[in-house]
From TrEMBL:
This is DUF427-domain-containing protein. InterPro entries: DUF427 (IPR007361), DUF427_sf (IPR038694). It comes from the Eukaryota. Residues 23-93, 136-229 form the DUF427 domain. Gene3D superfamilies: Domain of unknown function (DUF427). Pfam families: NTP_transf_9 (PF04248).
Amino acid sequence: MAMAALKFPFTQLPHIESSPKRVRVFFGGEYIVDTTDALLVWLKPNYPYYFFKTKDVPQKYLVDAFQSQKHHIYDIVVGNRRAEAAATLYHDDELDGLIQIEFSEMDAWFEEDEQIFVHPKDPYKRVDVLHSSRHVRVEVNGVEVANTTRPRLLFETSLPIRYYIPKTDCKLELLAPSESSTQCPYKGIASYYNVHLPTGEVVEDIVWWYRTPQLECAEIKGCAAFYNEKVDIYIDGELQPRPESPWASKRASAVVPV
């Protein structure tokens, strides 16, 4: 039996809120945005994006690329640096007159004086890591790959519980490093393992770990987590239902908040 689909705080999208933070965007050696009037915009339920009013994005950095009925796309140009199609001016309903800048195309983003990564953190999301003595076993296609009584349980709003297991309690002989990597604004940069089963079957990218997690999730450092959606996890001897989530049928992509 599958778990119920995960719920998000907003049913009506886009959802727009003012941000109380000073936000700066750095590109090509200059801060092209420096404002205390940024907006958090949820275009999809998972997390927000920063949008800016036109007054906060100097026209001198914007070079026409193309436009449609609802959007005006600009390259961002600073000196000899150009980020193609990196800014979008909306001409559509609630977003009319607002500019979105592609996060990954910029050199750095700052909230106040702290650099942020991947995307803005969701003010409605909380992440907690708790030590536990619950007995956690993980099987992949009937083969035990982890067994521990000292897991770290990571609770993140709107996502399944993730069970982080010390590597010494994993069958490391079955894990082979993958070339995949993802980023999370709450946890940091994740590396992945493929599981090599005794049958010769290889299950790709279903295990991840953080070498140097963000401070708020420091307790998961060096521990491995398995996609609940794709493995069998037993808690105190009871098989857990596989949750429904955006990763239930997908492999890891370049940026996945896990």
